[in-house]
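To close the chapter, one final illustration. This time we ask the reader to focus less on the individual chains and more on the assembly as a whole: which components sit near each other, and how the overall shape emerges from the parts.
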Amino acid sequence: MSKTTRDKLLEQAHVLFARKGFYGTSINDVAAEVSVSKQGLLHHFPSKEKLYAEVLKGAADQLMVMVEQARQISDNPQLQLQSIMQQMSREEEESIRVILLLCRELLDNRDRAETAQQWFLKPFLTELETMVINGQQQGLFDDGVHPLSYIYQLLGAIQYYLMSLPTLQQLYTAKQHKEHQQQHIRLLELTMQRVLVDPVS
Amino acid sequence: MSKTTRDKLLEQAHVLFARKGFYGTSINDVAAEVSVSKQGLLHHFPSKEKLYAEVLKGAADQLMVMVEQARQISDNPQLQLQSIMQQMSREEEESIRVILLLCRELLDNRDRAETAQQWFLKPFLTELETMVINGQQQGLFDDGVHPLSYIYQLLGAIQYYLMSLPTLQQLYTAKQHKEHQQQHIRLLELTMQRVLVDPVS
DNA sequence: AAATGCGCCTACCGATCGGTAGGTTGTGTT
DNA sequence: AACACAACCTACCGATCGGTAGGCGCATTT
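The assembled structure is written out below.
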């Protein structure tokens, strides 16, 4: 029932890497949060890079769980996509954390890219693409829409909004922000439905 | 005609902060790129924070120049917005650099936010909002669209695409990427025009 | 009872971090 | 000729970085 030290380290690493990035996070910080010495951490993860790699792996798994849940909801590609986008839009700590980690990785990957094997998010992206392609083949979606571009617009809108959240909350009053949040979701749904051949009311 | 050392330092700092972030960049790296000692840099900028602040200031200025150029193109808010989005979409080193710096700042700002004064990008955001509001008042844009949300969708799509560029080029062939790029722009224009009351062909 | 191995520790390493102190140029200004 | 000042420099600081070496306690195995 109680988490192992290793799991706690992994979770805190996820938190800190998402909040301060790879370079901004020291393994000392991570270890201290779990009340373990730095060497206690290095016992479980041979290097900072390996720790980071495992965190990314965990994030990729979380995204694939979203895909799995979407599949269980319906066979309809539109509803599946909608489910995933809704899950990603949830403004909860743990949910946002994955998105921030992803954005950090996109920015940093430029340097790490060569050393990295197959990119950890490719499967997730492929799943989303497949959903759109399926929708098009079933005649539900407009054939003229490029699957990857369509997905990227949605991901961009969602993730950019989430990574701006702290800043937005500072710039605007709570009421203004609430309004923005609602309208953001509404616009997102409009964008999603634009791909439909026969819009559902 | 020739750039001062100070300007060269500022430019290289911009490059490195955009590429590796605040924590991932050392003032030593910046100085070395300009063939100056670290203390040479510290002579011009009293601290790393001050250097970073000046870089941000420069980025904010570049964005405001975009607004200025858009204003000179036309009085029509739609054409103004279109101009800005096109300028931001340019896939050029210097152009992308500003976007990456902005995204980094959004992610890191959470920690620096309290200490930061008025956020350096607020004016730019306000300008964009004003353009949409003007368009609505002139009857060109749909009144039902929330200005900030509308802008954020556009910024999100553009910036997320740009920060993914290196990764995308790795994941897909040059041909696939070219296709994605074209469709990305097409979708962006569709999204922009959705706000129009009377779509222009 | 001896041996093994996991989990975690203290102690320490060289490298690098941002930053300070103080000196040395060269280039006007007076 | 004397001075002032900007534009650098070398030398150095304490702190922190990621990582290594080796030891201690405890549970399990043999």
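The longest helix of chain A spans residues 48-73. Chain A touches chain B through 51 residues (CB under 8 Å). With these observations in hand, you are ready for the problems at the end of the chapter.
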